[in-house]
Amino acid sequence: MSHTQTPARAVAPRDAAPGRPAATARRRGSGRETLAGYLFLTPWCIGILLLTLGPMLVSLYLSFTSYNLFDSPKWVGLQNFQDMFADERWWKSVRVTSVFVLVATPLKLAVALGVALLLVRPRKGQAFYRSAFYAPSLIGASVSVGIVWRALFSKDAVVDQAGRLFGLHTDGWIGDPDWSMPTLVALSVWQFGAPMVIFLAGLKQVPRELYEAAEVDGASSWRRFRSITLPMISPVLFFNLLLEIIHSFQVFTSALVIAGPGGGQAGGPGGSLLVYTWYLYDQGFQQLRMGYASAMAWMLLLGIALVTAVLFRTQKLWVHYEEEGTGAR
């Protein structure tokens, strides 16, 4: 019986593997895609360097100088910050802005959430109502809106005459130091469309099974809102709160236009509308104290950063995030 010997198979070297050229080609293609991505990002990178990061660094330098836009900056160290804390009008602007943030932000979010709760369920004409409530936010805090608002709340205007029917006698809401701030707050609350849309998106993510189970257990509407709706939309509420606080700190155009031509220096009647950014604008572009204005801008940035840090530190006490496989946290 003869045995046939099978010839030994030649083992190809590792470098000669058939898939190696394809892998090399894929790497080259990936490298070209990465290069193309960086090329597309180049205009954005140039823009952020020249229009954002560069001006911020220049502003930081100017905050330690005395600069009037015409002469060369003169280094003064911390003098601008020392003058700031001794400036009574600066403290006035801080107080006015703080009042606006503490009043306008929760009112705006409350109205936005209330309207979102009304619009989340299907109803006839729902698309129209959503568009109508969102429309004021499309206009933004423009000069035209401020002029219309000033016309509505001036002396003997529509709102003033309507107030007299209820025994509310003022020298016009805008001309009265006690009512000018509520006018500005009302304008901010009126433009609740943007947070309303975000609340609507969050409400649509709440499972209906939770409400049905609560109804079976006999929970009231308020209990369902407090125990189901608020915890489930707490991340959306946190997001809206953070954005609206930052936006409120930056209020400027509305206060300037509502105060009118005579309020450019005084900040409205009795300084009641002297918000922080208005005083910053006054010092930088009217008094030509650009170094002082730069220091004010960095103090505003630090203030917003501090408030943001506090919100992020306290969110774990009331914000509940849903984790995969573990439920809500």
Topology:
Elements lengths: L19 H43 L2 E2 L7 E2 L3 H7 L2 H32 L6 H14 L3 H11 L4 H8 L11 H14 L2 H11 L4 H9 L4 H12 L1 H16 L3 H7 L16 H11 L3 H25 L7 E2 L3 E2 L1
Antiparallel strand pairs: 1-2, 3-4
Helix pairs in contact: 2-14, 3-7, 3-8, 3-11, 3-13, 4-8, 5-12, 7-12, 8-11, 11-14, 13-14
Explained architecture:
The protein is an all-alpha fold. It folds into two domains: 24-75, no CATH class; 86-328, MetI-like fold (Orthogonal Bundle). Helices cover 67% and strands 2% of the residues. It contains 14 helices and four strands. The strands form two sheets. It has a two-stranded antiparallel ribbon with strand order 1-2. A hairpin with a 3-residue loop joins strand 3 and strand 4. Helix 5 (143-153) crosses helix 12 (253-259). Mean pLDDT is 85; it is low at 1-16 and 324-329.
Descriptive labels:
two-stranded antiparallel sheet; disordered N terminus; globular; 2% strand; MetI-like fold; 329 residues; 2 domains; mainly alpha
Short précis:
By secondary structure, the protein is mainly alpha-helical.
Order of helices and strands: HEEHHHHHHHHHHHHHEE
Strand content: under 5%
- Gyration radius (Cα, Å) is 30 Å
Largest sheet: 2 strands, antiparallel
Report the mean per-residue pLDDT as an integer.
85
The number of distinct helices, counting runs of at least 4 residues, comes to 14
| Uncertain residue segments | 1-16, 324-329
According to CATH, what is the class of the largest domain?
Mainly Alpha
The strand count comes to 4
**CATH topology (level 3) name of the largest domain:** MetI-like fold
Spatial sequence of strands, sheet with the most strands: 1-2
Question: At CATH's second level, what is the architecture of the largest domain?
Answer: Orthogonal Bundle
**Helical proportion?**
55-70%
The CATH superfamily title of the largest domain: MetI-like
Structural class: mainly alpha
Form type:
globular
Distance between the termini: 78 Å
What's the number of domains? 2
